[in-house]
């Protein structure tokens, strides 16, 4: 079965997206970043197709250590297990240096990435909020979703199955 990994700095809504796609309550969602520590794996069934989804949880809760420690050990291994990455940023509050570090890292990997901006409840104001900053990550124009409100989830699933 194909494996899709949700990657992103803390608090962008990875677990909310995981729960939205998998259904049920297999990942802990909390207001406090870094609450979940292990990987959570679930299965997504959609239009008679299926893939395995991994919420990478607390892997990136310590931005200054991303490259030095965690990404080099656990994540490298994990990334090689994945067929596709959902790289999630916060489309509401904007980007941080941790997003840039992750983006730089992911661009160097030979793995497919779908760029996702979450928390976009108002797509009309997305570009006036985020400006051209969003393009600085090097992944082009993101798919704009709201995991919490279920917006554009079908679009994301279409894109996932197209790339798998
Ligand atoms: P994670 O640390 O990346 O796993 O992020 P969480 O899924 O725990 O979400 C972090 C916070 O963002 C929580 O307060 C969520 O309720 C909120 N959140 C997640 N998705 C959305 C969304 O689509 N829109 C809005 N407005 N908030 C969201
Ligand atoms: Mg989480």
UniProtKB/TrEMBL annotation:
It comes from the Bacteria. Residues 2-164 form the EngA-type G domain. GTP 1 binds at residues 8-15, 55-59, 118-121. Associates with the 50S ribosomal subunit. Belongs to the TRAFAC class TrmE-Era-EngA-EngB-Septin-like GTPase superfamily. EngA (Der) GTPase family. GTPase that plays an essential role in the late steps of ribosome biogenesis. This is GTPase Der. It comes from Mesotoga prima MesG1.Ag.4.2. The lineage of its organism: Bacteria, Thermotogati, Thermotogota, Thermotogae, Kosmotogales. The gene is der. The chain holds residues 1 to 164 of 441 of the full protein.
């Amino acid at each position: 079965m194909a494996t899709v990994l949700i990657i992103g700095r803390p608090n962008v809504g990875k677990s909310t997206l995981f729960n939205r796609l998998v259904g049920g309550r297999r990942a802990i969602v909390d207001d406090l970043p870094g609450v979940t520590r292990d990987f959570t794996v679930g299965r997504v069934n959609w239009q008679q197709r299926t893939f395995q989804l991994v919420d990478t949880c607390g892997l990136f809760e310590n931005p200054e250590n991303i490259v030095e420690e965690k990404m080099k050990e656990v994540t490298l291994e994990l990334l090689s297990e994945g067929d596709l990455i959902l790289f999630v940023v916060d489309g509401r509050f904007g980007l941080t240096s941790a997003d840039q570090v992750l983006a730089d890292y992911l661009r160097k990997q030979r793995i497919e990435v779908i760029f996702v901006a979450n928390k976009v409840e108002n797509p009309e104001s997305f570009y006036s909020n985020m400006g051209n900053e969003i393009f600085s990550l090097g992944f082009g124009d993101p798919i704009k979703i709201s995991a919490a409100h279920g917006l554009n989830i079908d679009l994301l699933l279409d894109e996932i199955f197209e790339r798998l």
